[in-house]
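Q: Convert this sequence to structure tokens.
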Amino acid sequence: MPKKRDGGGLSKTQQAAKFLGVSVLAGAVLAGIALPAAGALGLAAKGSVEGFDEIPANFKRPPLSQRTTILDAKGGELAKVYSRDRTVVDLDDMSPYIQKAIVAIEDARFYEHGAVDLKGVLRALNKNAQSGGVSQGASTLTQQYVKNVFVEDAGDDPTKVAQATQQTIGRKVKELKYAIQIEKELGKRKILQNYLNITFFGQQAYGVEAAAQRYFSKHAKDLNLEESALLAGIVQSPSRYDPVNAPQEATRRRNTVLQRMADLKAISQTQADAAAKKPIRLKVSRSKNGCITAADGAGFFCDYIRKVFLSERAFGKTREDRLKRWNEGGMTIRTTLDPQAQKAIQASISAHVYEDDPVATAATLVEPGTGRILGMGQSRPYGFRGNQTVLNLSVNHDMGGGAGYQAGSTFKPVIAAAALEQGISPEQQYASPYRMPYPSPVPRCGGNWTNDKGSTAQNENTTEVGPYSLKEATEKSVNTYFVQLISEMGICPAVKTAQKMGLEQADGKPLEQVPSMVLGSLGMSPLTMASGYATFANGGEYCSPVAIESITDARGQAMKVPRTSCHRAMSKRTADTINTLLKGVVEDGTGKQAGLQGRDSAGKTGTTDGRYAAWFVGYTPNAAGAVWVGDPKHERKMYDITIGGIPHDKVYGADTPGPIWRDAMSGALANRPAPALPTVPIGAPEKDKGPDSGRHQGDDGDKNPGKHRPGRGHDGDDKPGGGWDIPGWPDFLGGGNGGW
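A:
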């Protein structure tokens, strides 16, 4: 046994052996980078023995990034999204030809050597010394696999990618050490399988399964000899040997692979010659990555799914963790999107608003009681060209939308619900003059609001003069009635009711406590308004919107997904009373053009001051929806405008958003149950006013429904202020440009 030096340590024999080993490693390193072979001794002399020992022994292999498939509620595919187009498959699901081809051209002695091919190193060193550069490399498939893992782990970070691929001795030594570890841990079959799953084949295809699909529209297990040789040849230089853009170069490279296979007896010479005579026959499947490929206008909902994933702690503690998990992919995400509802929304939008109109529209449907988002669409397509946009007009700013749009008179039912919860009778009457100053002071949550500027409110028409009850004021959307109502009740109950209904400003700021909120001065999104109105349809219980039904990972294991959160926002009696009021709107009031045939519905119109936005928000027992029409930039007033080929002197909530809502809901609910909305009779004796007292019969509140303008209703309706005169108040509070 060799003797140790005095004081311990390696003997001279052991030192020599280790020096020789590192020198061999140095030769392997230098065979792959542009340095003279004489540098091997210098590598050892500069302490690379110690450096080699200090490299961490644990080689981490992160999950390979794969494509994620997003499905609708029925299992139909919406889109595939990925940072790497890859589908991991077992070696048994890869053609034997591709296995033989990749070994033949990349590492012919793969099954004979360990992590380092010493013969290959010596051959490469000699060749490179003669050429004065790197004319031949000596990296084994195992070493190449390790390098690819470094690149995969770097993701899309250009700095990390540069570090993972830089031509330095340090990186190559690290690569060698991990290659040795991998050879011991995995064995040849697993290494080959991992290599074929991780390597890049050009045309955005990572791994042999994606490559087979991209170039030949088939699975990797079905690749024939010439197809396998073509793919194996691409690996060395995916751009140079790209068969789509450089078919001649790709053919020459394929034939080189075929001949190499024949030389190694992997195939016969006859097979190689026959395959080499065949022209390349591609059946290219173009990359369909991302939400831009989603059909029926579902690109915005698809993008919303990504935003939900990145915002939910169920998918990772930090946003960085969640983003990493999203980029890893390999998931199948089943969403709540109902294909019938989505098609109906997009068909209605396309019929009423053109993508090149000066204004846009957005519509969202949700399911009362579950919060499931059934559909989401808009008139300007998802994309980056012309009239396209990636701004989701249906959602809040933090989920990819803008800063919101004034809700107009669609906010009045929220105020009515708050008043009923405070014990104010639906038969409460107010003088409701044509014009009046805002009462002052008005209590709010912590202090009072005072009308220091002498602000006034007025109705749409001079003929709108009370007294009115709540029912008639709701049907006619009488502004001064609701100003008096919130002044008596106070602002705080209105804010608290709105919060219980999930209503929040789209820009993320707290609800502003001002009396003008009763006229819709706050900026909302269609998803928020639809979810809020679903509370009325659900007997007073609010359920938060959800978009994801289930997720399975690449192994088919179920992942935990967030569920809707429901709570009582108001009594059932209050909700049923609002149903009565809003049924009156679509039957006898401003929303008659939005009424549905053959099923109960309720809703409210809204148009903002200056006609920057128009709304219809409504519901049935099984769906609630919100439609907004306006200029996302908050610049175009909707006077003297043509929308969907129809000219308008003024746009009303009834004549543009209303029909969009009607057609979308009709299509979404076609051939589905039509349950009745629970209502209460208003004006009947108290003894008849139980919580389930039946549907409202007759018209006991609308004294003269015929005085409305046919088809347009009463536009006190729709202006949040209808002549709202507050000095210095902006025309579109909370609007912003939405990032458009």
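The chain has 23 helices and 20 strands.
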